[in-house]
Amino acid sequence: MIDRVLSLLEEKRYPEVKKTFLSMHEADIAEIFDEVSDSETTLRLFRLIPKDNAAEVFSYLDADVQQRIIEALTDTELKYILDGMYLDDYVDMVEEMPANVVQRVMKNSSSKNRGLINQYLNYPEDSAGSLMTCEYVYLKKTLTVREAFTVIRNTGIDKETVYTCYVTSPERKLEGVVSVLELLLADPDKRIGDIMTTSPICVHTMDDKEDVAKMFSHYDLIALPVVDKEERLVGIITVDDAVDVLQEENTEDFELMAGMSPSEGTYLKTSVWSLAKNRILWLMILMVSAMITGSLLESYEAAISAIPLLVTFIPMLMDTGGNSGAQATTMIIRGLALDEIELKDVFRVWWKEVRVAATVGVALSAVNFLRIVIQYHSDPNCVRIALTVSLTLIATVFIAKSLGCLLPMLSKKLHLDPAVVAAPMLTTITDACSILVFFNIAIGLLGQLM
Amino acid sequence: MIDRVLSLLEEKRYPEVKKTFLSMHEADIAEIFDEVSDSETTLRLFRLIPKDNAAEVFSYLDADVQQRIIEALTDTELKYILDGMYLDDYVDMVEEMPANVVQRVMKNSSSKNRGLINQYLNYPEDSAGSLMTCEYVYLKKTLTVREAFTVIRNTGIDKETVYTCYVTSPERKLEGVVSVLELLLADPDKRIGDIMTTSPICVHTMDDKEDVAKMFSHYDLIALPVVDKEERLVGIITVDDAVDVLQEENTEDFELMAGMSPSEGTYLKTSVWSLAKNRILWLMILMVSAMITGSLLESYEAAISAIPLLVTFIPMLMDTGGNSGAQATTMIIRGLALDEIELKDVFRVWWKEVRVAATVGVALSAVNFLRIVIQYHSDPNCVRIALTVSLTLIATVFIAKSLGCLLPMLSKKLHLDPAVVAAPMLTTITDACSILVFFNIAIGLLGQLM
Known about the structure:
The structure is a homodimer. The model of chain A has no long low-confidence stretch (mean pLDDT 88). Chain A is built from 21 helices and seven strands. By secondary structure, chain A is of the alpha/beta class. The first copy, chain A, has a four-stranded mixed β-sheet with strand order 1-2-3-4. A three-stranded mixed β-sheet of chain A has the order 5-6-7. At the A-B interface, helix 11, helix 12, helix 14, helix 15 and helix 16 of A face helix 11, helix 12, helix 14, helix 15 and helix 16 of B.
């Protein structure tokens, strides 16, 4: 479909592009803009979108495309688009724009929207307040069901979701919710106050947006009311925004766990410089730590000169330690993120990892022992070397799995993101441990040769 | 709240438990069962749930708790619970149960449900069919809006979501959708056929459930119709199930990327044995690969004996290579999973990584060069050693970043999960490369000393 539109566009068959747009979803139309890079074509393409869909397509566009379009549209066109957008998309857009574009947007916003946007921009980026929209249906509890339907009919068309209506007191305090299904099934003369569900699940404007997103999957919700400090209803959050937050938080965890600062945009739109900047800090910290680990080897120069074979086991010990730790830490960080593991489970978790470490460690050691004894059977010390390697391996796996579960939990306890003590940092720590253990066991078992 | 119920239960204050349940959400009641381990208390607690909520609480329980309850309930009680469950939860439950429990469930199911479950169990686990529910509202296009409301009123109470109604032909082919909002805003005498949206977005029963879940976040949907090969409507998928799929797929990627086979249940409920089993395969493969890397060092024994200092740089080179690769591969795997990167972008992606590698590699090398020259300034060869390490580092970062972006894309091209060529495997490959590069440069620059 996208390719078809692009080729129609190239051949300047504009009426056909327009016709194709009629049968396409707004999200798909927005995707076409990713393939267009010059401002002129972008604008031409945007003007071919049916008027009724333009605002919605615009909401789906990436910030850089939105900016290009805002800069090119006339004031009248811009006003039309802005008026058609949902407030939460509007706020998202304004947050991404540079100051001069924001100015142009604000100039073309209705004074009501201007006021609302200013208010919304004051919520911290990670708060529930920054996610919400104020476009919802609210009802008084003294209304009848029949009157409620009239309210929905009159205001519904502008609302992001009308299927849950919020019942508020004259002071705008949230008193209850009623679903459209309940309204449909109720006697039209009943009062809203009699059929509403009281004390509904709600969140506060300053709640963390990740926690809010998790509530959607915990309670299977499609919308959630947001109240301020005085328990007054100020907005709602819809499930589509919650899904976006979940995906963003997952991406952030993936990035942190690979030793990177989280990035804002998508990979292809992030500049080389930003990518490098996000990566260099952890690489540098970890490199310096690994230098220190390396320096440990200097103290064992005598051992290495006496038995050069020992050096050949270092990569295997380091990698296995790193991998064992990465497995444990990933399971724990994920478990904490999904609330499947809580801090009070720390002993259970550690005991589990100890037993896993024992099982895995013994199996890996056995394979190593056999391979060393077989490969170096001509060496009179082969059994002692094999024993050194195998014992180090068990110790390394034990240390890696223990730290792998304890460090993320400690980090959570200290109110840090558990994902920062993931594989990269753990590898560096277990590397140092395994080298120390290895040479100390070697000196114990093979000391007479050194 | 959970602690309060548990202490009330311990003091046998059952009427108060019952009263507390009345004000709790079903998902929260279900959480209490995680804290109870014996079957008798589980059953007692379950019987205290208000009758109207019991089926829904049951749907939220973990499979092992469900099984314990099914085994303990009387036939009458079981039948009551099963009748109250949504079909998709019902199917999920049956999929998790051992054969003897399934038999008991089937015996107590209505014949209609039995038939449907058998049909649903035939869909592959990863297909859209396995996610769907058949509880939705369908309308004929000849109905008026007024008549449509009667249909919704009569059937709506059993439906998981009534806010999108599906319009089907007499052969059950999907012809359009109409939202309750559209019905509310329409003239009551209009025909459904005139107000419905034709050719709605839909999926096929055999579509991959991950793709289906992504459609929800792409199009901001709350429900999606599912059709069979003949384009007949057979069910719908709701957004709550799509969110669960997204989270499961993310967890699976986290596990694969840390070198583990994906696990089925939550961490705390997975046995030590299963955890060990999921981890050992990759640990073993990677260990054997690292052994081979280690063996490479044997060929450089002369170099190591001549300049033992060289060994101390190995941990730093290995770790930095591993970390650089992990960063690239994580960004690419995540980008592929979110459809932000496509296979056709392979050259753009690689070129980006090359430039990042150059920036990062030069910075890291510079730091290394300075530290070696300063730390070992008394060694007459310190500049040449520093140069060896720095050049190796640049090469390692380049190799790691290149493979880190190319391997996941190659893996996708071969229809494998890109997440399997993540950090652990990449570390092993770059380790071998960096050791080869390091000693070859060393022999070139410092050969006269060996």
